[in-house]
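quick one
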Amino acid sequence: MAKNGKKVVIDRYKCAYCGACIAVCKFNANELIETFVVIDEEKCNVCMACVKTCPMGALAVVEE
Amino acid sequence: MYDVVVVGAGPAGSMAAKTAAENGLDVLMVEKRQEIGVPVRCAEGVSKAELAEFVEIDKKWIAAEVIGAKIYSPDGSEVILSEEQAGNEVGYILERKIFDRYLARLAAKAGADVIVKTSAVDLIRKDDIVKVKLRKMGEEWEVESKIVIGADGVESRIGKLAGIDTTLKLSEIESCVQYLMNNIDFDPNYTYFWIGNEIAPGGYIWLFPKGENAANVGIGVMPAKAKRKPKEYLDNFIKQKFEDGKIVEIVAGGVPVKGEIKTAVADNVMLAGDAAHHADPITGGGIINAMKAGKYAGIVAAQAIESKNYSAEFLRRYDMLWKNDFGQKLRRNKILQEKILKMDDKTLNKLARSLAGKNLGEMSVRSIVIALIKANPRLLWDIKDLFY
Ligand SMILES: Cc1cc2nc3c(=O)[nH]c(=O)nc-3n(C[C@H](O)[C@H](O)[C@H](O)COP(=O)(O)OP(=O)(O)OC[C@H]3O[C@@H](n4cnc5c(N)ncnc54)[C@H](O)[C@@H]3O)c2cc1C
Ligand code: SF4
Ligand code: SF4
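structure w/ iron/sulfur cluster:
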């Protein structure tokens, strides 16, 4: 998917594995497995919903 | 083949599994975490009377009792809702780590199978039944079931897999952080709430006592309104109010504040609790509604199995049950929430001041709003019929 060379990355040191980012992803591009958030880059549309929702500031968009 | 597979072992899932098993059904409850109830995503406050309708109260999972609430507007005006004296506690602060496990054990005792560290990852409907794909420690397999109850919380995927769109918009979720704090000073008979667009945009800050000098101090903000992360707002507040407090636990989470959804059923599937956005849009409280919904889903599952009818059409009676119980309150509080979201701090101060010094008695959203309408008829005229 075209994302202008951007992608979402997670800072595992900040993540509190709360699942809020999963609730707002309409592309089903992320999953919380126990304490481990995985983002499926194929499905992710870099819509930023999860980045804006994360209570800990653990998600960010970076240039690929 | 199971009669019912329950996905998620929170209050909704455990109540659903317990109720279905008590009705003689073959039940499997699947929880993806390795420890039920941990990590906690909750401030743990519940109404004493409502909880007592479901379970016998056990001191093992009660951390504190409170007689009321104190609410503060941005300029510090105080509104009190409480019983006149201690001894009339109306609310409990739970120890959810213990409470959630207790409920899961009630389900197991009733006869439900329980597996942990196992995720439900897919649903395939086939000839009137569902295959639920499970994954445990990297291994995948399928179980067959007539009915699936999605009690998988705010991050629910069961709804989406069944065709119910449960994705929350940035104006439909509260992004929350909470600290369990020690060495702080407050009156342990009360819960505390601080509101204001500067301190907690689209949400509020809370303090719920957990015993002597210890409390859950947390914040929820609405991502659509907040300029910063909830953690920054909370840290700011704590620096001013509880500088010497010690943080012994961090909790994060999301609460659905969307209000009533149209339907929580699809063919073979019912959603209960946060998965169906059953949490209250004003308070964010969701434990009791989750338990109610789980129980209703268990009852309807038993009826469906008896009638051999698992169609969405049949399962609509579950929608009827939860909507008749608390659907109207979700609708009402959503309208109230939208109204409050538009208020600036000046208006919030004005409203709080109009009630300052009075004790409003009963600890409920309704009693605050009715008092506010009496004191400020014009500001709230348009919503008065919802509350009388
Ligand atoms: C910070 C915060 C404070 C809160 N404070 C209060 C409060 O004071 N009072 C109150 O009443 N409510 C409060 N709430 C809301 C309350 O916590 C929820 O409404 C309640 O837990 C909902 O129960 P549930 O059973 O629907 O979901 P949950 O308790 O979230 O349980 C869902 C379970 O499903 C599991 N799961 C998810 N996906 C899968 C899968 N694919 N496979 C298997 N298992 C899965 C999860 O691991 C989880 O254990 C608060 C919420 C937050 C975030
Ligand atoms: S950026 Fe959007 S699509 Fe990508 S994981 Fe986050 S919410 Fe999902
Ligand atoms: S919202 Fe943030 S803290 Fe919560 S699980 Fe997602 S990345 Fe982690």
